[in-house]
Design goal:
Blueprint (H helix, E strand, L loop, with lengths): L1 H41 L1 H24 L4 H4 L15 H21 L7
Length: 118
Amino acid sequence: MIRSRIRRAARRGAMGLAGGLCLGIGIALLTVAGWIALASAAGHGIAALTFGLIYTGTGLILVALAGGRRDPDRDAEPAAPGPPPPPASPDLVQAFFRGLGAGAAARKGFDRGRGARR
């Protein structure tokens, strides 16, 4: 299982490296072809200025995209823990029902003749 993960990661890395290398060679060849066409039409100075601006603009856009957005969840401070959940039966409610039960028990005893006033 671990070996298959390592193989897949190595394969993805090799494919990415090969793709990047082919992309770099393609960009270099297109740059040369564009240079030749632009230099013959407008001169070497204009060709150098044009390709310099294209690569500088592309580089600035890529740098801005790489560092422009931040993950709000990652940068946010951890939230303070909320209040603890209320107990199933708060103390005041428990005390009320205990008192109610004690009163009912006392009344039953009072009605049976233990000191009943009649």
